[in-house]
Records
---
Amino acid sequence: MEKIPFAKLFDGIEPIYDEILNKAKEIIEHTEFIGGEEVALFEKEFAEFTESKYAVGTSNGTDSIIIALKALDIGPGDTVLVPATTFIATADAVTAVGANVEFIDIEKDYYTIDPDKIIEYLKGPNGHKVKAIIPVHLYGQMADMERISQIAKEYNLKLIEDAAQAHGSKLNGHQPGYYSDIATYSFYPGKNLGAFGDAGAITANNEELYIKCKMLVNHGRLKEKYTHEIEGYNMRLDTIQAAILRIKLKHLNQWNSLRKQKAAIYIEMLKNKDYIQHPKIRKNAEPVWHIFSILIDNRDAVKENLSKNGIETGIHYPIPLHLQPAYTHKNYKLGDFPNAEYHASHELSLPFWAEITASEIESINSYI
């Protein structure tokens, strides 16, 4: 029995392996390990890829959100709304800058923050404390940014898009950052565009925000080594990671196209299984399918059966944020966010990567 892993990261790396090794060797020989041309070129090329005016490399996706919040002057006394279904980084970045995080339920069909619930919170007793919203483009599909951006304008709120899983995703032909003040990215190795370790980026279209982010990631300095315009952090993008990302970025459109093809195969094979809710595609959306996620009854039994047959699966995210031990002090309770809770108890992530074959998908389908 052939085993099918959850992902095969090396499938995408192997064709460009020698190019990456040669570039790393070149950097080592030139001993240019911090900043330099590779970082500057990656920032330029990633801005072009995301159709943004500016990009700033960062140390990871979490730091990207922290920098974005600081650049927008979010801090103590401010409340930031985030979806209840996401990785904790979206939320703990908020508390890292001293702000208060509050959770909002997700849409049932698309797993992203529910605009109606945002409005409900804003009209509530603590709505006046909200200064920003961080929608998360979960599994590679953008949230309802057209509507969320209208809400942000109406209530004079800052808007940060967590695009950690959405490199190249589009809504109405626009990528993350078009509808917001800042978009943040993670290049964690398993992402559609993954580094060989931690790395991240910020994109923006406002020059003032860009300059502030650029300073914040590098101890508050912009040009002179020992001249610090503001207090900042050490959250720079590593040079070798930037070089690797530059090489991989050239292939990202092709990899995303393959992911779309494989997701279509999955959806076609699963369409007659009425006990499965497969991902729905938002109108005018072009997901990049970071994760292929289904909702299914008896999730744990199905997962165990797949495992017995050599098929590795994952679960995202088994404990919604409002029920995490880290947020016990906020006194949320079971039942507060029913869609997020349903997702947590029914979600199953199937094996998925750009190069997965139709026969592998067929084999997986036969055991669900």
---
Amino acid sequence: MTKLFTLALVVATAAFFGLSASGLAAGNQDGERIKTGNCSRATDWKLKTKAEDNGVEVEFEVDQNRNGRVWRVVLRRNGSVVFNGIRRTRPPSGSFEINRIVPSGRITATARALATGETCRASIAA
């Protein structure tokens, strides 16, 4: 019983460290962080940051799966607006994205569908 327990402990420890090491490498390989979520209805959002030489690349994507829908989008860094504009979902996936390079900080993104009022809210530390 002791040998079996020791073997199980070794295998579990190796699996734990193997998964942790690969998870850290994937998450930190390019300094990339990704958060995803649901909007107030059926739409999904993704907020991604990636370290760049001159700041942080921010990508905010809204995927509604319907083309031609108009959204008002506001992107903020530490509370200051870095993007404020209108975007339209486009083929083939019925989505849009905003890309900006900003200094590191707290990134928040809000999108509101003009026709329905559906709202997406996302934030991430970059």
---
Amino acid sequence: MLLWAALGFSFATGVLALWVGTDEAWFVVWAHGAGGMAVILLVWSKLGVIRRGLGRRWPNVGLSLIAAAAAVAMIGAGLAHSIGLGNLGPFTALGWHIAFALALLPLVLVHLVTRPVRPRRGDLTRAAFLRAGALVVGAVAVKAVFEATLGAPRAATGSLRVSSPRPTVWLNDPTPQIDLASYTLRAGGTGHTLASLGSLPQHEITCALDCTSGWYATGTWRGVVVSDLLGPLPPGTRSLQVRSQTGYARRFDPAVAEAMLLATQLDGRPLPAGLGAPARLVVPGRRGFWWVKWVTAIEPSTEPAWWQVPFPV
């Protein structure tokens, strides 16, 4: 039962770590790491049980072995990221960690359905609570020692610093081919070209782009503040929908429009296509998947800002 609780805690904090803002993420990320250490401690203590189960030829042993391999790969990739390893082949170490976690989820569900863990009277005894407390203390201690001895310097979100932002996409969202001469942005019912955007008051924001694949880079972004671009909002506006040329979109609370920038330059140079040219959203304090690239529309909406899936697909 403790192993399932540790796995569930680790998965929940891992998802939450991707969702919370960059300034609030440190506690969730640290707790996620401690949850992972608890999983390692519990798996190590159950190696004998696993060996006996393999000898008895459990039903669906093939799926169990696949799940075990995915769990080992997930933990290994997470540890690799934590010690500062950025890339593992075509993806970052954290990207592999997330991918293996998502692959493990249905395998764990199948395991629970085929071999359900039923609550027992002994699960609520004083001894059981003491074991759980000892596990928590042990996991926290192991996490603290790991960070002090092997952990690489990382942001509060757990991301590793890189020298400059990298071209990335959200899932299957490839870089579109956009003709800059014919580019038009719809904002509050008005169409803007690159030239008209450049004629509006320009502002600069120096902040970090923190990608959910495990890296962050600080840069100076230059462009138009979203509130200046939209002007007074119509009555009944409950959110701002920012849409990409690819169809990708995010909703924002109108109250943050003054803190968001529609950027056309990075560090004094025009944005490259892979980083969102002609214009991308800059949202300080939010993870990278909120920074919509290749923006073609920013429109007031009567839908609330929370009316969207947490991680758009």
